[in-house]
Amino acid sequence: MVRGAPPVRTCVGCRKRAEASELLRVVAVVRGVDQLGNELIAVEPDPARIRSGRGAHVHPDPACLALAERRRAFGRALRISGVPDTGPLVAMLATPGTTGGARTPHDSKVGRPS
Hints:
This protein is an alpha+beta fold. It has three helices and five strands. It has helices at residues 62-71, 73-78, 87-94; strands spanning 8-10, 17-19, 24-33, 39-45, 55-58. The strands form two sheets. The protein has a three-stranded antiparallel beta sheet with strand order 4-3-5. A hairpin with a 5-residue loop joins β3 (24-33) and β4. The longest helix is centred in the middle third of the chain and has 10 residues, at 62-71. The two termini are 30 Å apart.
């Protein structure tokens, strides 16, 4: 059986293409409604890649996250209006040693001396 190439996605921050396993999937979640009737939307990580709905991908790197926020890329990629709250995503990336399920290049033990 011939295996296909792994899926490739584009980071919404730096716009570089990478394997999906190296990127963190994020989804938009409605948090509630404000006094004016506008929906409060947050961008949350989906490291298991199981949440339904439209997703976007970003490198698990604070620099890519900051670039995506500055470019307002989450709104376009997730097709939402307004500026979403990225607090849950920032909190997850600020935790040391957390890559959100995305693999770093050093996670593989293939080729490593034992």
